[in-house]
């Protein structure tokens, strides 16, 4: 590892993303951080995504275009090709917050196992709202794999993980493999830090949102695997009671 500037592998997953890929690429290549490896994993797009990507080939370490088995398979391919000290996923339609974002992140956190921050979620009307680690994750002292039973309050666009600690995504989970992946990462991470800064903007409506019922079933399976059946059922009871209480107070 370069002690002053650890290598950051930024991985963009895309498929038929001609309308959104360029703003993502521009936000990556505009970074003033000096040690970036940029990889684009394309699902063999049928539109002109790759023509747009080719305009920036001098700034891209690898472009891989081939069929995949879904987004998590593509993310695994990116991870397997990456050579950086850290990995950071920034998919088509996502944007890094500002040109100095990565430099600010790494200025004081270049030795941590897991680093995270805040994101701006963009709705269909173009409105921005903050997505950050909130209760039960109020600070870097409390975010751990055990607190993940409360839910996933951070996004992959706002986390950096040491590549040596990052497992492959479990493709048995089609829609929320990132939830299981994050728990496994946090089980191995010895140091976890919140930068308290904005990292990115990303569009609302990922695959877990689009397939909510199946996503909830997968989430239950993941919680049961990591926390046990009784604990998982009890946690869902508490969530239901809180929701009912909020409803009665309206």
TrEMBL record:
One of its GO terms (molecular function) is hexosyltransferase activity. Keywords: Transferase. This is Glycosyl transferase family protein. InterPro entries: Glyco_trans_2-like, Nucleotide-diphossugar_trans. It holds the Pfam family Glycos_transf_2. It comes from the Bacteria. Residues 9-159 form the Glycosyltransferase 2-like domain. SUPFAM superfamilies: Nucleotide-diphospho-sugar transferases. It comes from uncultured Aureispira sp.
